[in-house]
Amino acid sequence: MINRLRSWWKQEQKQTELSISADNIPQHVAIIMDGNGRWAKRLGLPRVAGHQNGMKAVKRTTIAADELGIKYLTLYAFSTENWKRPKDEVDFLMRLPQEFLKLELEELMEKNVRIQMMGLENNLPQHTLNAMNEAAERTANNTGLVLTFALNYGSRNEITESMRSIGAKIADGSLSVDDITEELIQSHLLSSNLPDPDLLIRTSGELRLSNFMLWQLAYSELWFTNIYWPEFKKKHLIEAVAEYQRRTRRYGGLL
Ligand code: IPE
Ligand code: IPE
Ligand code: MG
To answer: For ligand 2, what atom is nearest to the CA of residue 206?
Structure first.
């Protein structure tokens, strides 16, 4: 019985993987990981249980993205607006990076994953920042998947800060107004070392961007699912990539 189940499961896995082609894998996938609280509520659990299980989905998705040949995975973990939540929940979320890295860093090292943070550093608790910095340092020489945690990230804040820094350079004479180009603005964003996302996924059925990578998503393909983040599995990533591969990206031109 167990064996029959196992072979059915293997068959099932193979079939979903066959539905995507190895030639057109999105280089950069960004995910708005949403629905942790509602997942927990549905099971009669406290919201933080949703965040705890969301962490397992982060691990699964990173491994799955690596297996599919995705080069950059960017995960929206905490927005600049999420400080509005109750202190207990915020404190819990701020402890998750440490816990995640304690549990998973060794395996991610083995998989050659490079970890980095994208977000405002100044008002993060020191322990959260230390955990992210340590992960970034330890994985700095890895050459595999680049895993970026958007933590204390807000796109309007990012764009505002980049305008301030360009403005300061104009004021001190190191740049002139004519130097302002799309490339210059891009190079002042927190994501300056990342290509634009090819595919954006949002879980939990919400159809909005919630201040995530507004500049960078200009021509990304968007994919939404009703699945809550803690339920997200490799098969959902494959489903999203399969849909991505059916899309025609025109960038405003004609084919
Ligand atoms: C996403 O899940 C995680 C964060 C925003 C930190 P939520 O906590 O937003 O879960 P819902 O949307 O309330 O279900
Ligand atoms: C977006 O989710 C932020 C993260 C996933 C980290 P939210 O749950 O905060 O977004 P809204 O409030 O539904 O727009
Ligand atoms: Mg939410």
So the answer is: 13
